[in-house]
């Protein structure tokens, strides 16, 4: 049995110990983490946890401490920069992870936990357009309002002003449209 200290990325002071057998899988470690932090991870399945070795320099450097784990920067995918993703199909004692002779030290964090997040707007597109000399075209604004209000489009919350949804607006004689669309 080995005691690993884990920290949830983005949650300061979240380091906690987990006891796990060296001959168990990283997938089993996910389940142990989920069991240890049932309240913090209540809406996330153990399989959806991403675990990273909390070592600097892509697994070649020193173990992070609590402050280092709290200050870890994330890349564009939400992964801790410079840390290696642990393979859930490999043993804890695998040399890619901790090895046979692993001895935890005081104050070290060994595993960074990243709960996989759903991205609410990954399937939406922002559509913008304009109609020059729209004031000279009869009915164009009405037709565009119908299009923006149909099932095809949604108001862009960034254009909301004075408690009103604004999908269409004039800039001089140019009519502008902006809406959010499903893929």
Automatic annotation (TrEMBL):
Places the protein is found: Host cell; Secreted
Top-level taxon: Eukaryota
Keyword tRNA processing included in the entry's annotation: no
GO cellular component terms, A-Z: extracellular region; host cell
Keywords: Secreted
Domain Crinkler effector protein N-terminal: 2-114
Main location: host cell
Official protein name in the record: Crinkler effector protein N-terminal domain-containing protein
């Amino acid at each position: 049995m080995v005691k690993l200290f884990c920290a949830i990325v983005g949650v300061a002071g979240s380091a906690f110990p987990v006891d796990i057998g060296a001959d168990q899988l990283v997938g089993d470690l996910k389940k142990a983490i989920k069991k240890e932090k049932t309240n913090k991870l209540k809406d996330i399945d153990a399989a959806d946890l991403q675990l990273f070795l909390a070592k600097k320099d892509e697994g070649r450097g020193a173990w992070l401490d609590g402050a280092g784990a709290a200050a870890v920067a994330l890349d564009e995918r939400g992964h801790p920069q410079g840390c290696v993703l642990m393979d859930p199909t490999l043993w804890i004692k695998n040399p890619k992870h901790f090895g046979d002779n692993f001895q935890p030290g005081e104050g070290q964090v060994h595993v960074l936990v990243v709960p996989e997040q759903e991205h609410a707007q990954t399937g939406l597109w922002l559509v913008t357009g304009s109609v020059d000399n729209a004031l000279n075209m009869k009915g164009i604004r009405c037709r565009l309002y119908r299009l923006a209000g149909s099932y095809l489009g949604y108001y862009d919350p960034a254009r909301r002003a004075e408690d009103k949804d604004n999908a269409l607006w004039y800039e001089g004689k140019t009519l502008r449209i902006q809406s959010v669309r499903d893929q």
